[in-house]
Amino acid sequence: MRNYLPILAIAAASSMAAFGAHAASVKNIVVVHGALADGSGWRDATNILERRGFNVTIVQEPITSLADDVAATQRILDLQDGPTLLVGHSYGGMVITEAGRDDKVTGLVYVAAFQPDEGESLIKAASAIPAGKMNIRETTDGKYLYLDPAAFASDFAADLPKDQVSFLAKSQVFASKEAFSAAVGKPAWKTKKSWSIVATEDRSINPDLERMMAKRAGSEVTEIKASHAVFMSQPEKVADVIQKAAEAAGN
Q1: pTM given for the model
Q2: Does 228 fall in a domain?
Q3: Tens digit of pLDDT for each residue in 32-41?
């Protein structure tokens, strides 16, 4: 009788290899930072993900308007060579909700982020379940907003070292009022898989609001004990969620 075991073994190995390639097919990760901090804060999480085999790109959006920031994200998406996972922190959640409609995007990860529905602006979404009073200031021309440097630790990054918080406060990206008042169109999360990280100690976005928006979108939720700067204080845990999403988005 002919021995079919070698043939079956080869077939099984080929099937497993094909399944593995399919499951890990999303290798491109594009991160959209939020207001008040730029993309450099994602360095540790990026290094972790790249060691795990992912190609990570950070969008340095200007936060001059939602349209400008979506356009900046689109320029980066255009450079990706295949399926891509979009990650947004804070205001970046507004951006990926719009930019995520791109055909290359297979999934969305919201990191302590706004996850708006159609017609919602950041201001409207935030007012649903307000956070504690943040020490927000206006520029002299009244067009941009920033966080009082003296309150940066308590309001944004209470779980980071003082020297790190001091630098963040000095290098924060001012946000235009126009960006915060612009409404999104049809949310990408209505047609794409989504994941949400709730920062349980967040004082910039109420954690209950993060939970509500994630539930509304049907996102898979992970709660992490951290401040709004969870991507910096807990980069390994954030990277774990992103990796899980990238693998699931490839199925």
Answers
A1: 0.90
A2: yes
A3: 999 999 999 9
